[in-house]
Design goal:
Elements (H helix, E strand, L loop, with lengths): L8 E8 L19 H16 L4 H15 L11 E5 L6 H9 L9 E3 L2 E7 L2
Antiparallel strand pairs: 1-2, 1-4, 3-4
Length: 124
């Protein structure tokens, strides 16, 4: 870790599972039917809408609404995708790498982990 990296970050996420995910079941218990390409496309379309928000507050509120409506993450969807304050070692490596690479207020491009396709917003 570089000396200038933060010790912790606060991130929100949207997870879209797909048929190739390690547990291809949506948060309401239904089998996920979409493929990886569709999951990534869905996140890319959401990101396109989010980056057009008028300010950071509007962007964060829109992200929270999209997470509640579309995320397949059982633990964070109801909380608007809020993963809380994340420290090194608390997320899967790809998710942790993304969380710590974002600037505050930045939205990631869609990225993959074995769980599915993700998009993150670093709040702080």
């Amino acid at each position: 870790r570089a000396a200038d990296l933060p010790e912790e970050v606060h991130v929100l996420q949207i997870l879209k599972k797909h048929a190739g995910s390690t547990n291809p079941v949506s948060r309401d218990g239904q089998p996920v039917k979409c493929n990886k390409g569709r999951a990534i496309l869905a996140l890319a379309n959401m990101r396109r809408r989010l980056v057009m928000a008028s300010d950071a507050g509007a962007q964060q509120r829109a992200f929270v609404e999209l997470a509640r409506e579309h995320s397949d993450c059982e633990r964070s969807a109801r909380a608007g995708g809020d993963l809380g304050v994340v420290r090194p070692g608390s997320l899967a490596q790809a998710a942790e790498d993304m969380a710590f690479s974002l600037a505050a207020g930045e939205i990631s491009e869609p990225f993959e982990t074995p769980e599915g396709a993700h998009m993150m917003l670093r709040v702080a």
